[in-house]
What we know:
The strands form three sheets. The protein has a seven-stranded mixed beta sheet with strand order 1-9-8-5-4-2-3, sandwiched between helices. Strands 6-7 form a two-stranded antiparallel sheet. The chain has a two-stranded antiparallel sheet with strand order 10-11. By secondary structure, the protein is α/β, with parallel strands linked by helices. The chain contains 14 helices and eleven strands. It has helices at 16-27, 50-62, 69-82, 93-103, 120-128, 173-183, 234-243, 252-257, 277-288, 290-308, 340-349, 365-371, 379-387, 399-414; strands at residues 86-90, 111-114, 132-135, 158-162, 186-190, 198-199, 202-203, 210-214, 227-231, 331-334, 388-391. The protein folds into two domains: 4-45 and 290-414, Alpha-Beta Complex (Aspartate Aminotransferase, domain 1), CATH 3.90.1150.10; 50-288, Type I PLP-dependent aspartate aminotransferase-like (Major domain) (Aspartate Aminotransferase, domain 2). Helix 5 (120-128) links the parallel strand 2 and strand 3 (132-135). The longest helix is centred in the last third of the chain and has 19 residues, at 290-308. Bound molecules: pyridoxal-5'-phosphate (PLP). Pyridoxal-5'-phosphate is lined by residues 92-94, 118-119, 121-122, 164, 190, 192-193, 214, 216, 227.
Amino acid sequence: MKPTRVVRNEVEDGSTEKRVKYLTLLTEPQGKIKMAKNPFIPFSRPWIDDTEIEAVSQVLASKWISTGNRVREFERAFAEYLGVKHAIAVSSCTHALHLSLVVAEIGSDDEVITTPYTFTATAEAIRYVGAKPIFVDIEPDTLNIDITKIEQAITPRTKAIMPVHFAGLPCDMDALQDICRNHNLVLIDDAAHAIPTEYKGQYIGNIGDLSAFSFYANKNLTTGEGGMITTNNDAFAKPLRTMRLHGIDKDAWARQSQRDIWRYDIATEGYKYNMTDIQAAMGLCQLMKLNKQHERRRDLAQIYQKELANLPNVRTPVAPENPNEHSWHLYIIQLPPGEREGFIRALSEANIECSVHYIPLHLFEFYQEQYGYRVGDFPCAEAAFERVVSLPLHPGLTEEEIHIVIDEIGKILGS
Ligand SMILES: *Cc1c(COP(=O)(O)O)cnc(C)c1O
């Protein structure tokens, strides 16, 4: 792919040159990569074993393969795990965010405050209801939304705040709840990274007005694709349950159980956002393993923290004292500006896969054209983007592998 779209982004404010630089970063791999003899160490891998394969096979053999009893069991178990009153399973986190905005009655002409330092899905969901994502810059160390900058972004149109618990480190929920109370806003947290993440003795998912989880393939708990909305608010839960399946008051399982397969009412506006029993069966297995996978991630992150702390020029991530207050979905180091590309390339040559989270949303053409954002608008997000590297971290990563990664990093940064 060539950065052919630069011309259309020419603007009068002098940001063109910087944007060309970003686009080149985004689109041009820098030459062929020589492969080393190390075994390939992937950045992430879903943690799947025979229990998931067996559970999914049972659903297939049962012939009830869409939304049914497994989905209900998964919802109950998920709610019980978090200690939250309601869990509503859906087809993705993006859809969980969308339905949360719908049930909170956020629509066109409204504004929703969020972070530019996230996956596009967060802001995309805001677009689905016709509202405008209002970005607020991040804190340079936690990479979470900078709460001290939120109030100046609030206008009479602001209806909600949608924070992201970046990499699995919780945002300051007390402060966010205070702002929401003072300005009558709904707190919808994008908890895609935050399972399991504790905040002051409670799980994320049990604090915001509505929380959205992702079970995408690379997330801490996966069903391939899938998501969950959690809330303690009965007035949100009831319409969410019908809206996620066409607004129909009884799903097929309920109708079949009552031997009354064809009779139903459309109670609310509807969407095709339901989860299948195939996904839920897998989710139940993943939920059983959630604590174990968290321990693995936490221990691996601690190895990185310890071994990388003394390397010059590496900034290791913020780690809370209580190890449960981070899900360690991602392990992100920051390097001096300008060194990141060479670093990733050198790791690739050592057969080690890394990633970058994220390209700030306001640097993309769509967000610039649609909402008028420009390079330079969110300097902390841009500075972070130039420095960050996400290192391999997943429950299947062995100690031998993590030490290969650490040794290679030492060689690259030592030279
Ligand atoms: C993965 C992710 C999403 C989207 O999740 P889907 O389940 O794929 O819709 C949203 N927000 C963040 C921060 C994510 O990492």
